[in-house]
Amino acid sequence: MQKGKFIVFEGLDGSGKGTQIQLLAAEMKKRGRTVYITAEPTSSSTGGMIRDALGGFIERDAYELSAMFLTDRIFHNVNKTNGIQQFIDRGIDVICDRYYYSSFAYQGTDADLDWVMQMNLNCRKILKPDLCIFLDVDIDLCDERIENSRLEREIYENKAAQKKIRQRFFEVLERLADSENIKIVNAARSIEAVSADIINIYTHIKE
After folding, report:
1. pTM over 0.90
2. Which CATH number is 39's domain given?
3. Terminus-to-terminus CA distance in the chain, angstroms?
4. Which residues contact 73 (CB under 8 A, 6 or more apart)?
5. Per the domain annotation, does 1 fall within a domain?
6. What tens digit of pLDDT does each residue of 114-170 get?
7. Number of folded domains in the chain?
8. Could you give phi then psi for residue 183, rounded to 5 degrees?
C-alpha cells in the first residue's frame, strides 16, 4: 500500500493557516485523496497543559514548555487512536497545523535553539514531513488579523514576540533548507491567490 503524504503548515499567529489548510484539503479530496486534518498542541493531557500555558493561565519556563511540546508531539505521532503514523501507514494524507518548526521558532527564542532542534530532529518517533508550507505575513497584518478574530490573546500574540519569532522562523527554515522540503508562500495576498500557489506546490510534490 502506498503511504500517505504528511504536510505541515507553519506561520505566525494570524497568518491564515486554518483557512488554507481547509482549502488544500478540499482540493486533495477532489483528487480522490483521503485527508486527515490535525493540529498541535493535541487534545492529550499534555496538550491541555500546553494550552493553559499559552493562554497565560500557568507560567512555564521555555525549556519546560519545549519538553512538553516534545512529549505531546511524540504522542501525536504514535498514539493508536489518531496518531499521524497510523494514518500515513494506511495511505491517508495528513495535514498538520504547526509542528516542530513552531517549537524551534517560538520556544527557540528563549530556550537554546540547538537543544530544541536536536531533541526533535533526533527523535525516531517524530516523523519528518513530506512538505512544510510556511505562510509569510508581516507582523502588522498578523496583529490586525488577531485583533479582529480573537477575544483574548495568547502569550506570544503580541508584536514584540511575533517580531522575534518571525526572525527565528527564517533562521530555522534556512538551516533546514537542504534537509527538508520547505516552501515559503507570500500569504499577504488574497485567499484565492495564496491557495492557488499552495495547490501548485502540492501538485508538484505528488508528481
Report:
1. yes
2. 3.40.50.300
3. 17
4. 40, 99, 100, 103, 120, 126
5. no
6. 999 999 999 999 999 999 999 999 877 777 777 767 667 776 667 788 889 999 999
7. 1
8. -125, 130
